[in-house]
Amino acid sequence: MNSKHAFLVLSTFTLVSIAYGEREVFAPTKLAPTATAGTVQFGDGTVAAPSMTFKSDTDTGVFKATDNTLGITTGGTERMRITAAGDVGIGATPTNRLNLTYNGVSGVATVGPNSTSGNTALTLGTSSSGTYAERMRIDSAGRVGIGTNTPNSRLNVVGGSLASTGDGLSIAGNLINGRLFSAASGGNVESLHTYFDGKAVEISAGSSSTYISGIGIASRSYTGTASDAVTLYTRGVERFRVNGSDDHIVAGNGDTSATPAASTIRGTNASGTDIGGPNLTIQAGRGTGTGAGGAVVFQTSAAGTTGSSLNAATERMRIANNGLIGVGTASPEAGIHVVRSSVPNQLRIDNVTTNATTKDGYIGTSHYNNTSEEPVLSIRTQSNSAGENQVFIGGSSSNFNAATSVSLYTAANNTTTGGTERVRIKAGGQLRFVPLAAAPTVSVEDGDVYYNSTTNKLQVRAAGVWVDLH
């Protein structure tokens, strides 16, 4: 060992200790044994020239980065650093227990438990108040679980409180909005869009400005107001809207439009042979206990004066909570109650409306045997090409059963219900005057006829007196 160029040889699995003094083997390497232990000391080295290196690759090895910090370099570039606190940095100076950073132009960084035969999973966890818990897991099938260690979908988020703003799933592109995209043949298609005010969400089959074939649901804040709306889109056009300001449900292409489109609300159409269609029910709100339910109200808007202001909507028809229908009145008092100041348009019944065509109107009643017999005709009106305006009472149409008798009733005043039968046209065609024991005295005028049951004679009023007709 006295030679200036002595060598220290360590055979495989053999430890050689030096018992006396310090001997320099190769500067800056130094053997520093003591009576009980020994050390091998190296120079600090640098990134480009590490102190622990290889004969044929001198820029790859281990060096002292700073005091109490170990650095590992390859090709003269630092790759990993371990600090005195035990923090490890790969590609970066560590500020946490493990820092991974890639600063290359391109490439892939792989982190994961690799197995040649078994199933593995990758878990990430954090500690809260000193207690460690798993927070995220990627299982062997590539499913990601947050809040669960058994994810059942490609991304499975479990747990969290609706009352906590720190829970849930947040998607944000910037401070203005966030978007979630799905892959399509023509490029990425926007599937979820959140707006800057935090109140608006779109679930769409297109971008926020151009929707492709599909459906979008959006909740937006109107500019200048605090109200929101929920809208339904198909093929890039708004079809349905629920306003937050007035709670109106709007069918069509928007709350307002310079080119408003017609719309239809219907039930599902049948498909196949001889398949019936379903009912469509429109229901007013129901009350409880002694509280009555609401009415179904229909409104329209007539033309106003020129301008851009919306014309007022007016109630035109109402189905009350007792089933009575009012046209022109909000308080119907009959099955169909029509109130209209224009006399010709109060109630009109036509079978056609084509000009210069015979028109019929019918009013009838269901037959006693309504499952096997046609209804009974009450009144029929007709305007025809012969220049006749006719009124038929009790019959005249093969589509109705005719009346077997027609009776006329009157009363002595306008507050009597029911009234009294006065004249009857019977099934055989005879006309019957209901007998009176004495001559009538109410609304008497020349030309009146009645049957006197005391004298058993028909009498007619002539020149102010009653005269026997036979």
Provide a descriptive summary of the structure in words.
With about 475 residues, this protein is mainly beta. Among the domains are: about 130-160, no CATH class; about 175-255, no CATH class; about 435-470, no CATH class. It is about 0% helix and about 35% strand. It contains no helices and 33 strands. The strands form 8 sheets. A 7-stranded antiparallel sheet has the order 14-15-16-17-18-19-20, with no helix packed on it. A 6-stranded mixed sheet has the order 4-5-6-7-8-9, with no helix packed on it. A hairpin with a 6-residue loop joins β15 (about 190-195) and β16 (about 200-205). The chain is rod-shaped and about 165 Å long.
Q: What is the averaged pLDDT score?
A: 82
Helix content: under 10%
What is the overall silhouette? rod-shaped
Can you tell me the residue ranges where pLDDT is under 50 for at least 5 consecutive residues? Answer: 1-27, 206-216, 219-226
Strand order of the largest sheet: 14-15-16-17-18-19-20
Number of strands: 33
What is the count of helical runs? Answer: 0
Beta-strand proportion? 25-35%
Radius of gyration: 49 Å
Classification by helices and strands: mainly beta
What's the end-to-end separation, in Å?
172 Å
Report on the biggest sheet. Answer: 7 strands, antiparallel
